[in-house]
């Protein structure tokens, strides 16, 4: 591992391997290329875990990203490499991502990036933010988000739909109870 923590063993190591197996280098590379398109950084957009972690771990590039999408989203970007300052940057990015409309289930915990616990969740968050960027006139990544498709039915249409029995529930044509017996037969 690239960080200074002791390597995990036993169940923790197994759980970490499972989390790491979900990580996609292609999606990570797509995220870094999208970040470079907006911010001009980083030089290396390789999606391997080591590079992805090194590029994003201090949170400064993430803060620059949200400030490029919408100026002033993160008021103070800490350039210090001290742990709590870096984690403040990551938290500021996460707060900005929520304000952009990234759903809570698509964000990550600060430790997922800072302690390299779940880089896949960081990729998911960046992909989600990438889908929101077009709302601010910036290039976006990933599939285009669906738009609302509100339908208005008349009372007559609603009543007509109530009389129809959907075949989605199957049919009971030809159903009877022959052949059904529960438990033992009755002995007299």
Automatic annotation (TrEMBL):
GO cellular component, one term: actin cytoskeleton
GO MF entries: actin filament binding
Domain of life according to the entry: Eukaryota
InterPro entries according to UniProt: Calponin-like, Calponin_repeat, CH_dom, CH_dom_sf, SM22_calponin
Domain Calponin-homology (CH): 25-134
Single Gene Ontology BP annotation: actin filament organization
SMART domains per UniProt: CH
Entries under Pfam families matching the protein: Calponin, CH
Family as reported in the entry's similarity comment: Belongs to the calponin family.
Protein name in the entry: Transgelin
Upper taxonomic lineage: Eukaryota, Metazoa, Ecdysozoa, Arthropoda, Hexapoda
């Amino acid at each position: 591992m690239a960080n200074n923590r002791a390597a995990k063993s036993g169940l923790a190591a197994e759980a970490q391997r499972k989390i790491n197996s979900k990580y996609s280098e292609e999606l990570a590379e797509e995220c870094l290329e999208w970040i470079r398109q907006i911010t001009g950084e980083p030089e290396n957009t390789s999606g391997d875990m080591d590079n992805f972690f090194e590029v994003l771990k201090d949170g400064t590039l993430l803060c620059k990203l949200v400030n490029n999408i919408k100026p002033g989203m993160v008021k103070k970007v800490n350039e210090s490499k001290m742990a709590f300052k870096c984690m403040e940057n990551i938290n500021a990015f996460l707060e900005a991502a929520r304000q952009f409309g990234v759903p809570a289930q698509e964000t990550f915990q600060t430790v997922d990036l800072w302690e390299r616990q779940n880089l896949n969740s960081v990729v998911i968050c960046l992909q989600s933010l990438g889908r929101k960027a077009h709302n601010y006139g910036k290039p976006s990544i990933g599939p285009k988000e669906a738009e609302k498709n509100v339908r208005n039915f008349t009372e007559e249409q609603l009543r007509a739909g109530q009389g129809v029995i959907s075949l989605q529930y199957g049919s009971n044509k030809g159903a009877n109870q022959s052949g059904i017996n529960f438990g033992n037969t009755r002995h007299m």
